[in-house]
Amino acid sequence: SQKIEQNSEALNIQEGKTATLTCNYTNYSPAYLQWYRQDPGRGPVFLLLIRENEKEKRKERLKVTFDTTLKQSLFHITASQPADSATYLCALVAVEAGKSTFGDGTTLTVKP
Amino acid sequence: DTAVSQTPKYLVTQMGNDKSIKCEQNLGHDTMYWYKQDSKKFLKIMFSYNNKELIINETVPNRFSPKSPDKAHLNLHINSLELGDSAVYFCASSRQTGSGNTIYFGEGSWLTVV
After folding, report:
1. Which chain A residues are closer than 8 Å to B57 by Cβ?
2. For testing the chain A interface, which of B103, B105, B107, B110 should be mutated: the one with the most A CBs within 10 Å?
3. Which of A50, A63, B43, B60 has the greatest number of C-beta atoms within 10 Å?
């Protein structure tokens, strides 16, 4: 069966360090993978998209990698700040399915 | 201006009641969605509409009935509410479905069934 797993429900790191979040999937052939941020009491907000033929994408302090062989995406936040504390969701987009399917999220806490 | 707006934000109601959640988007998108997020934060698609036509219906009980009067609106009506329906319901929109386009979410409607 299809499955999307994000690493541990919670990730705690010290300010200034790099946070690395993982998104593993099985039995999917996504054309795209997206990362969203969700703050408590709010809806998810889009951060980055990476295509299946792209290895890496960057945006300011954010970096996403996509390895279709390992069926994994890594999401990095460098020089993390307490304001980066939130839940981060990965979403796989399979064109033939016509929808985005979300992982269960990782809650990141950056401590000052 | 709010891109995707949904009302009400909070809803507490008794089992057996019927309730509706309204959603509007002002982004000019063709596709709208309803997602359900449970207490474990798992975000699961319920319905997707493209230009007022239902294109995804993800094994949702018949008690849930979406209605799209035009492509800017997608309302969700729930009959005979059950305790298990308690969750956060997110309305969302995008330019097209399944093409990697950004999904824009509303702020959510917190439904509590007592």
Report:
1. none
2. B103
3. B43
User: For residues B11 and B4, what is the distance between their CA atoms, to the nearest angstrom?
Assistant: 18
* 10-residue stretch averages of pLDDT, chain A, 112 residues long: 82 96 90 94 95 93 95 96 97 80 94 96
Distance CA B85, CA B112 (A): 8
> Which pLDDT score, from 0 to 100, does residue A24 have?
95
Residue B25: which domain range? 4-113
Residue B21, domain CATH: 2.60.40.10
Would you call A93 and B92 a contact, using CB atoms and an 8 Å cutoff? Answer: no
Residue pLDDT, tens place only, B57-83: 888 899 999 999 999 999 999 999 999
pLDDT, position B77: 97
Burial class of residue A45 in the structure, from the number of CB atoms within 10 Å of its CB (0-12 exposed, 13-18 middle, 19+ buried): middle
For residue B109, give how far its alpha carbon lies from the nearest alpha carbon of chain A (Å).
Answer: 10
Q: How many domains does chain A have?
A: 1
User: Which of A32, A44, A104 has its CB closest to that of B100?
Assistant: A32
d(CA A42, CA B69): 26
- Residue to substitute from A3, A9, A33, A100, interface B, most B β-carbons within 10 A: A100
* Cα–Cα distance measured from residue A41 to residue A21, given in angstroms and rounded to the nearest whole number: 22
Full residue range of the structural domain in which residue A43 is found: 3-111
- Report the amino acid identity of residue B79: N
**Count of structural domains within chain B:** 1
